[in-house]
From TrEMBL:
<keyword id="KW-0378">Hydrolase</keyword>
<feature type="active site" description="Charge relay system">
    <location>
        <position position="200"/>
    </location>
</feature>
<dbReference type="GO" id="GO:0008614">
    <property type="term" value="P:pyridoxine metabolic process"/>
</dbReference>
<comment type="similarity">
    <text>Belongs to the glutaminase PdxT/SNO family.</text>
</comment>
<dbReference type="GO" id="GO:0016829">
    <property type="term" value="F:lyase activity"/>
</dbReference>
<protein>
    <recommendedName>
        <fullName>glutaminase</fullName>
        <ecNumber>3.5.1.2</ecNumber>
    </recommendedName>
</protein>
<feature type="binding site">
    <location>
        <begin position="142"/>
        <end position="143"/>
    </location>
    <ligand>
        <name>L-glutamine</name>
    </ligand>
</feature>
<dbReference type="GO" id="GO:0004359">
    <property type="term" value="F:glutaminase activity"/>
</dbReference>
<feature type="binding site">
    <location>
        <position position="108"/>
    </location>
    <ligand>
        <name>L-glutamine</name>
    </ligand>
</feature>
<dbReference type="GO" id="GO:1903600">
    <property type="term" value="C:glutaminase complex"/>
</dbReference>
<feature type="binding site">
    <location>
        <begin position="46"/>
        <end position="48"/>
    </location>
    <ligand>
        <name>L-glutamine</name>
    </ligand>
</feature>
<dbReference type="InterPro" id="IPR029062">
    <property type="entry name" value="Class_I_gatase-like"/>
</dbReference>
<feature type="active site" description="Nucleophile">
    <location>
        <position position="78"/>
    </location>
</feature>
<dbReference type="GO" id="GO:0005829">
    <property type="term" value="C:cytosol"/>
</dbReference>
<dbReference type="InterPro" id="IPR021196">
    <property type="entry name" value="PdxT/SNO_CS"/>
</dbReference>
<keyword id="KW-0315">Glutamine amidotransferase</keyword>
<dbReference type="Pfam" id="PF01174">
    <property type="entry name" value="SNO"/>
</dbReference>
Length: 253
């Protein structure tokens, strides 16, 4: 059975293309009944408020919540991460409906506006151990969220260092120095995977192969992803880098 990609808005075509590169069929999902024909689901990046309004219009939220509760693998990228979170902050007035299931708190626009999009090299030891390839992943962040808190059952897969802005201590009226901390940008909890960045916009298909391995309901899909992952990554270096234009975003330090 195919992998569903929620196709209300956002980068669903890019996810389908990335799945195709590892030999997996992705199908567009726009109606609740279409979820019955897929073993797993990807909720892509996009404009989370718009996606939520469209999902509500098509009465998709009950079916999406049931899909998660059934234990079927679901991966949310960027806006999809916001969808899966149990709690979201920094939302527009009135908020938005969430699918939930992922025990975390997400800040909707943690890294700023569209013009503050960037790329960063993320250490990804678990991904590299599972899928091979380099120990880091070049992640594309576009008006991205970040995970502020996680529950005890959530496994952190990637974090990024951030500079906190200067603040004033009310008791002393003195500015504190900038300090460096980390925020979480990739997690896994049971059947749920979530990334604050956009793996579908890169040529590195390891996150898609990683997600396929989470699907125990379809041995054929798991087998294809497992056997293809290492060879495809090596071949992509020589072919896809020459065939696809690279993104031109600032590097995040």
């Amino acid at each position: 059975m195919a992998v569903g990609v929620l196709a209300l808005q956002g980068s669903f075509n890019e996810h389908i293309a990335a799945l195709r590169r590892i030999g997996v069929k992705g199908v567009e999902i726009r109606k609740a009944e279409q979820l019955e024909n897929v073993t797993s689901l990807i909720i892509p990046g996009g404009e989370s408020t718009t996606m939520a309004k469209l999902a509500e219009l098509h009465n998709l939220f009950p079916a999406l919540r049931e899909f998660v509760k059934m234990g079927k693998p679901v991966w949310g990228t960027c806006a999809g991460l916001i969808f899966l979170a149990n709690k979201a902050t920094g939302q527009k007035e009135g908020g938005q409906e969430l699918v939930g299931g992922l025990d975390c708190t997400v800040h909707r626009n943690f890294f700023g506006s569209q013009i503050q999009s960037f790329e960063a090299e993320l250490p990804v030891p678990d991904l590299a151990a599972t899928e091979g390839g380099p120990p880091s992943f070049r992640a594309v962040f576009i008006r991205a969220p970040a995970i502020l808190e996680v529950g005890p059952d959530v496994e952190v897969l990637a974090s990024i260092s951030v500079q906190s802005s200067k603040t004033v201590d009310p008791s002393s009226q003195e500015e504190s120095a900038e300090s460096e901390g980390k925020v979480i940008v990739a997690v896994k909890q049971g059947n749920l995977l979530a990334t604050a960045f956009h793996p579908e916009l890169t040529i590195d298909s390891r996150w898609h192969s990683y997600f396929m391995k989470m699907s125990s309901a379809n041995n054929e899909i798991v087998s294809i992803a497992s056997s293809s992952s290492s060879n495809l990554f090596e071949n992509q270096e020589s072919y896809l880098y020459n065939k696809q234009p690279k993104t031109d975003l600032p590097i995040y330090h």
